[in-house]
Each structure stands twice: as C-alpha cells, then as structure tokens.
From TrEMBL:
Name of the gene this protein is made from: era
GO molecular-function terms, A-Z: GTP binding; GTPase activity; ribosomal small subunit binding; small ribosomal subunit rRNA binding
Protein's name in the database: GTPase Era
Biased composition (Gly residues): 25-39
Region (G4) residue spans: 163-166
Keywords associated with the record: Cell membrane, Cytoplasm, GTP-binding, Membrane, Nucleotide-binding, Ribosome biogenesis, RNA-binding, rRNA-binding
Record region (G1): 53-60
Residue segments, region G2: 79-83
Domain KH type-2: 244-323
CDD domains: Era (cd04163), KH-II_Era (cd22534)
Subunit structure: Monomer.
Binding residues for GTP: 53-60, 100-104, 163-166
Length: 339
C-alpha cells in the first residue's frame, strides 16, 4: 500500500484493513487532511475521534496538525494536556471532531484520578480511538497498559498511530509497525509525522472510515468549540511551562477571570488572568528575579493570544498560591476540574 494515496482508494472495509492493517511507511506524500472528495453517492460522515497514549507521544501536536491550527497546547513536559479539547477537521465527505484527552497514567493525586476517569468515559463515547506510540522510542510498560485498556473497550474501534516518524529511520519505523501490530488487534496502523505533515491525509481517511453517516455538526470554518477563555488560559499555561523543571509543571494552573474589549478601544482586548502554583517557593520561581520571568511569560502568551484571536491584547497576569490544589477537591473545582 502506498503512502499518501487518494482518499477514494482508502475506502477499504474494517475487515479488509484487519487483514492488512499497516498504512504505508512514512516517506509518502505530505499533506494535511487534503483528501475527502466524496465518491459518487458516498454518504457524508460525522463523528468523534480521540487520541490516547503515554504522555509526550505527540497527541496534541497531531490534533493541531490535523485541524491545521493550534487548538491544543503542546510542550516537552509530559502531562501537558489536562482538558478535553475538540478540534474539527472539515472535508467535503466528512466532519471529524477530535477530542483531545490527558494521557492515561497511573493516578498519583486526586487530579490524576479525575483525569483518568475523564479519559475512560470519553473513550466509550467516541466513534474511533487513535492509540499513539512514537516511532523513535521502544514500546514499554506504559504503552502496553494503555493498549490493554483501549482494546478492552469493545464498543470502540482502535486505530494505532505511529507518531514522530520524522525522528526515525525507515528501518526503525518498519520495526515499530511490527512491534505495534503485536500489541493488540488494531483496525489499522498508520505511521505519521505531525512535524512534516506526512501521512496526515491517510490518517484522516482511516479515522473517517469508522464514523457513522450523518450531516455536519459544525459550520464550515469552525475549528474548535472550546470557549476562547479556556484556550487563552491554556496558552498562558503553555508559556509558563517553558523552561521550568521537575514537579513545577504539574503545579501550575491558569484561570482567566475576565476578558473584554477596552471601553472606547474596540481594537484592544483586556485579559485578566491568575496563574496558580502550590507553594510560595514555586511562586518565587515563576515570577523570577525582579519579575523578569513572569514578564517573559506574559509577553510570549500575549503574542500567542493575539495570533489566536486576531486582535491586540493587554494581558494582566498575576501569580497566586493555592496550597496543594492538586489534592484539594474544593480548589480543583475552583480551578475548573469538575468531577
Ligand atoms: N519531531 C517531532 N516532534 C513531535 C512530533 N509530534 C510531537 N512532537 C513533539 O513532542 C513533544 C510532545 O508533544 P505533545 O503533542 O505535547 O504530546 P502529548 O502526547 O499531547 O503530551 P501530553 O499532553 O503530555 O499527554 C513536543 O515537544 C512536540 O513538539 C512529530 O511528529 N515530530
């Protein structure tokens, strides 16, 4: 099977693909979600997909690349994603709504437990699951744990996605595809790179195959239904995560209190946000000497927010301590993590 083939050729049934589940090797034609010309009389499909995998395997980056814009934040720190975010891929033949989840992992805190139950309930509700494994790392216990969990969900088909293929040689990719095929009985296995856009169109084709027939749920051009306030908070958190180490990334939460155009200045949006950390020592780190670090974080976040919203932004960012918020149900609710 060649990579980057036409969408219409991809219409193999789940049964066919079970016999030959591997979709090409990376190195095929690049392109993002470009397929999707509906064949004559082919029904329109609409549905939900969800990517799961160990932290840091590239789930959020993949969703952004498929959707074509930055709707989920990414970082080199594991467990960056905390919220369920939807990105929408529009094609003539289909609408693929991607639900981004936090990685499944063994819960260590109350926050961890809540995230895991959130993930499991999401998985039974979507139409297809994308189980992600990076091409450039050996399959480990964590991957096996998640592969077992998702293949136990009988009602949802699982497609394996070998990510970050730009970081592996052809031989390594081939070996990884084989290793992944031994993990569980996947419907399909697709090697991709979100960095170079390789095989993203093929992945979309494969996911769309599993969606039910139905009309579009979102208007053309809508890329996400996350409230802007949430996206803005996530961009601030992403800027704050850069350059911090150890436990600190997990201790940072951001709440956007207010967001409105400045009276008499329709071209300027005022945003008031608070960054929460768990301890005073962390507050000092986040703020930095003479407030330097916080200033950099604010500038970086502001630029990203301006790019997202297409307007000039004034960002008022404060840091507060919410003691041990990850373990405290009341604080968790306040920061938007509901049970
Ligand atoms: N070279 C390369 N790097 C990638 C690719 N996809 C993701 N990355 C990088 O891998 C890191 C983790 O990516 P994320 O998308 O945040 O991973 P995630 O699985 O969503 O992580 P969690 O939110 O922790 O679950 C980031 O530094 C990305 O830039 C890819 O296709 N190629």
């Amino acid at each position: 099977m060649t990579a980057g083939r036409d969408a219409r050729d991809a219409g193999t049934s789940a049964k066919d693909s079970a016999r030959d589940p591997v979709h090409g090797a990376a190195g095929g034609a690049p392109g993002r979600a470009a397929g999707g010309s509906p064949g004559a009389g082919a029904p329109h499909r609409t549905g939900f997909a969800c990517f799961v995998g160990r932290p840091n395997v590239g789930k959020s980056t993949l969703m952004n690349a498929l959707v074509g814009t930055k709707v989920a934040i990414t970082s080199e720190k594991p467990q960056t994603t905390r919220r369920v975010i939807r990105g929408i891929v529009h094609r003539p033949d289909s609408q693929l709504i991607i639900v981004d989840t936090p990685g499944l992992h063994r819960p260590r805190t109350l926050l961890g437990e809540r995230l895991d139950s959130l993930v499991l309930s999401t998985l039974t509700e979507v139409d297809v699951i994308g189980f992600c494994v990076p091409a450039n790392e050996r399959i480990g216990k964590g991957d096996r744990f998640i592969a077992e969990k998702v293949s136990a969900i009988r009602e949802t088909p699982v497609v394996a996605v070998v990510t970050k293929c730009d970081l592996a040689s052809k031989k390594e990719i081939a070996e990884q595809l084989l290793a992944v095929s031994r993990l569980a009985d996947f419907e399909d296995i697709v090697p991709v790179s979100a960095q170079t856009n390789e095989q993203l169109d093929v992945l979309t084709d494969v996911l769309v195959k599993h969606l039910p027939e139905g009309p579009p749920l979102y208007l053309d051009g809508e890329l996400t239904d996350e409230p802007e306030q949430v996206l803005v908070g996530e961009l601030i958190r992403e800027a704050a995560l850069e350059g911090v180490r150890d436990e600190l990334p997990h201790s940072i939460a951001v709440v956007v209190d207010e967001m409105h155009p400045r009276p008499g200045r329709e071209d300027l949006l005022d945003i008031y946000a608070v960054m929460f950390v768990e301890r005073p020592s962390q507050k000092a780190i986040v703020i930095g000497q003479k407030g330097e670090r916080l200033k950099q974080v604010g500038t970086k976040a502001r630029k990203q927010i301006e790019a997202l919203l297409g307007t000039r932004v004034y960002l008022d960012l404060h840091v507060k301590v919410a003691k041990d918020w990850q373990r405290d149900p009341k604080q968790l609710r306040r920061l938007g993590f509901f049970d």
